[in-house]
Amino acid sequence: MLGLIHGEECMDDFDMQLIGNFLSFASRGDRVGLNQMLREGMSPNIQDYDKRTALHLAASEGHAPIVELLLYYEANVNLKDRWQRTPLTDARLYGHQDICRILEVNGGIDFVNDQPMTVRHEEDSNEVNIDISELNVQHSCAVEQGVFGMSEKVKWRGTWVVKTAIRRQIHHRDVKMVLSAKNNSLLRELRHPNILQFLGSIVHGEEMILITEYLPRGNLDDILLSKVRLDLLTILRYALDIARGMNYLHEHKPFPIVHNHLHLRNLLQDEAGHLKIGEYWVQMFYEQIQPNQDSNQRMDTPGDTQKDVSAFGMILYQMLEGRDKQLTENSADISVDLGLQFQLVKGPKRIQQLIEQCTGKNVSLRPSFVGIIEVLEDVQTFLTRAGCPVC
């Protein structure tokens, strides 16, 4: 987490990694870790970019013991996030009735649902407006964050963020992609522990500048290059991070958000060691143009979620078997049956079968991310109980 605020004051003097860990503990339900940080003096009212507190996160995820712990440390029960939601609003939204009762007893108010809805005019919108003059490039440096565009770490309003400049036109695998004038307000509203936080964009000449959160621990490609082999439980944890983030995007209503370019380099590691998915906005910003045709003849790009499932299978394969240069460069574009070309020798049988199902040529047999999560969780639970790898 970045851009953390205590009340209205910037928390730039705080250790960003410690604050990220604090909010991660609340989101994951880690009472021991959270309690230790609170005892050491961490404020329970710290907020992230979206002004969400640990209490918001715990209420959303259904962690009643965490809610009670934060209230014991006198967390402000009615702080509002960027969408004017309180922790009680989130507890109601996700159906956690036990937490609703806890918050109500402690003075919690749902300002959104307990009052008549009013019309909000566009000029009253609280979305982030970013001016290019606000970006401080002093001490900036290049970062590896994704496949599209050049990225660098810069400061925005006292906080490190990533600035990515994407060109008006790019060519990807013989397809020309042209920047469109689509509204990006939806992107600001997307939030999930396993997707990179999108903060805003700036149109600057022939480029669009995207501002996203900065994660200091690199990407999955860096991780696979730096380590001989990941242990199996770490692989499962990473795979679940990816699958949960992708499931959130695919389950978006009324239409799924299809990534279409899932890649080792746009899977980024946060301060707590979890992966977040970046560049899910590419399909929302660009229109694809058919080869040898002009910009008035755009391709119809329906929500092909199966391409994302195939890319996920190839990424899971590389975490198990080792990074493969060909697959790394083409993970989002190859649609072949890996079983015909590669020998799967590592990992539990169910994981090997999952990879084969995800990457098989028969797309009708590919699982959804809901099914992928179920398999990964079952294997993870079994291995945790067994206490040793199972092949």
Would you write up a description of this structure?
- With 391 residues, this protein is an alpha+beta fold.
- It has 3 domains: 117 residues, Serine Threonine Protein Phosphatase 5, Tetratricopeptide repeat; 82 residues, Phosphorylase Kinase, domain 1 (2-Layer Sandwich); 147 residues, Transferase(Phosphotransferase) domain 1 (Transferase(Phosphotransferase), domain 1).
- The chain is 36% helix and 16% strand.
- It contains 14 helices and 13 strands.
- Strands 4-5-6-10-9 form a 5-stranded antiparallel β-sheet. Strands 2-1-3 form a 3-stranded antiparallel β-sheet, with no helix packed on it. Strands 7-8-13 form a 3-stranded antiparallel β-sheet.
- Helix 1 crosses helix 2 and helix 1 packs parallel to helix 3.
- The protein is globular, with a radius of gyration of 22 Å.
- 38% of the residues are buried.
| Helix and strand pattern | EEHHEHHHHEEEEEHEEHHEEHEHHHH
**Helix proportion range:** 25-40%
SSE-based structural type: alpha+beta
The low-pLDDT segments are 1-14, 116-127, 295-302
What oligomeric arrangement do these chains adopt? Answer: single chain
User: Average pLDDT, to the nearest integer?
Assistant: 78
Biggest sheet record:
5 strands, antiparallel
Number of helices: 14
Overall CATH architecture of the largest domain: Orthogonal Bundle
CATH topology of the largest domain: Transferase(Phosphotransferase), domain 1
Strand order across the largest sheet: 4-5-6-10-9
CATH class of the largest domain: Mainly Alpha
Give the radius of gyration.
Answer: 22 Å
Outline:
globular
Count of the domains: 3
Question: How much strand content do the residues show?
Answer: 15-25%
Q: Alpha-carbon distance between the termini? A: 36 Å
CATH superfamily of the largest domain: Transferase(Phosphotransferase) domain 1
